[in-house]
Design brief:
Radius of gyration: 44 Å
CATH architecture of the largest domain: Beta Barrel
Order of helices and strands: EEEHEEHHH
Distance between the termini: 182 Å
Structural class: alpha+beta
CATH topology of the largest domain: OB fold (Dihydrolipoamide Acetyltransferase, E2P)
Strand content: 5-15%
Largest sheet: 5 strands, antiparallel
Number of strands: 5
């Protein structure tokens, strides 16, 4: 048994929790999840906002968006507040750091270079309207709802079902992560190659993330195929029902039973012919 030692952990910093692993470049939808009010290393006051992608495929990412309180950096704060739907007048004004938290915005993602190669970074933030409707994932909490078009009870039931499905998907994702992280490096590389992932020069932590992303993407494709199969099956059943209806319509009614002809009465017997009078023989003298 080893000896106990005394170590000083008073100056050890907590893990940041940021995850800027590489994701596709371009415009993506994000949720402003948190704000950190810790000053920058040089002592400058700074608000750091945590932006999380709304796309479930990249939900493990959490990108920092640094906003220093110095003249040449204030545009970042103004852009973020404006993207969140909060007006910032061009004058000296007070801002609430928590105001953008919970809002849905758009952000430009680009690949990092140099020592941060293999990661992504946020280049700019914008109003979510810049993203096409088809690419939007989240619903903004501040958007008005039209109660006249929907019945409250039905909406509540649908929301409960969606939440249950989300919880189940979250549990499945956690189980998958535990399974992948428990693999040895050799087993992990073998599994990654089976998914078509290039493993050359990739560290284990990054390889774990790549394998999980591919596994989840594969599950989504299978769900889509199952939905298509169900739709095709439903169409076939509908066709069969229509065909059965046509057959029933084409059936001819059974002919009515024929009546038997009435029995003919026996013909009356003809009266016997009268006997001809007997001929007399006349003798000649």
């Amino acid at each position: 048994m080893g000896k106990k030692i005394t170590l000083d952990f008073s100056k050890v910093e907590e893990r940041s929790g940021w995850n800027s692993k590489e994701m596709p470049e371009g415009l993506h939808e994000f949720k402003v999840e948190l704000v950190d009010l810790k000053d920058a290393n040089d002592g400058t006051a700074m608000w750091t906002y945590g932006l999380r992608p709304t796309n479930p495929k990249y939900k493990t990412r959490l990108f920092p968006y640094y906003c220093k309180h110095q003249q040449n950096q204030l545009f970042k704060l103004r852009d973020l507040f404006t993207a969140a739907g909060i007006t910032v007048p061009k004058k000296r004004t007070g801002l609430d750091p928590d105001a953008p938290v919970g809002k849905i915005i758009a952000a430009e993602v680009s690949d990092a270079t140099g020592q941060y190669a293999g990661r992504s970074e946020i280049d700019g933030v914008y109003d979510r309207s810049i993203i096409d409707d088809d690419d939007r994932v989240a619903d903004d909490e501040d958007e008005p709802e039209d109660d006249e078009d929907y019945e409250g009870e039905e909406d509540a039931d649908e929301d409960e079902v969606d939440e249950e499905e989300d919880d189940e998907e979250g549990e499945d994702d956690e189980e998958l992560r535990e399974e992948i992280e428990a693999l040895t490096l050799a087993a992990l590389r073998k599994r990654a190659k089976g998914l078509g992932i290039d493993t050359d020069g990739v560290k284990k932590d990054e390889l774990v993330e790549l394998v999980i992303e591919e596994e989840l993407a594969g599950d989504e494709d299978e769900d889509e195929e199952d939905d298509l199969d169900d739709e095709e099956l439903g169409d076939e059943d509908l066709d069969d029902e229509e065909f059965d209806d046509e057959e029933e319509e084409d059936e001819e009614p059974e002919p009515a039973p024929r009546r038997r002809p009435a029995a003919r009465k026996p013909a009356a017997k003809a009266a016997p012919a009268k006997a001809a009078p007997a001929r007399r023989t006349v003798k000649r003298r």
